[in-house]
Specification:
Distance between the termini: 61 Å
Largest sheet: none
Number of strands: 0
CATH architecture: Orthogonal Bundle
Shape: rod-shaped
Number of domains: 1
Structural class: mainly alpha
Helix content: over 70%
Number of helices: 2
């Protein structure tokens, strides 16, 4: 994948990060190739972190909305 290519979903990002690590650990890449792989890995990690942060926010909103619905239901039952 090139730098300008579309970033993959989180599962594919993690798989690609794992593959990059394996390639770099083998020690057969040139310095330039290693730096390119490292740069790609950092990009994928930031992308995966953003996906996880967005998912966490969605979960928090759902929990908050559910909690508010339960409070409203409880208040209506008391009347």
């Amino acid at each position: 994948m090139t730098k300008k290519s579309k970033l993959p979903n989180i599962e594919n990002s993690l798989a690609e990060i794992s593959a990059l690590i394996e390639q770099m650990e083998q020690g057969e890449l040139s310095l330039e190739q290693s730096l390119n792989q490292f740069e790609r890995g950092i990009t994928l990690i930031k992308h995966a972190q953003k996906i996880l942060q967005d998912a966490e926010q969605k979960v928090q909103i759902l929990i908050q909305n559910n909690h508010e619905e339960q409070l409203n239901s409880y208040e209506n039952n008391e009347e």
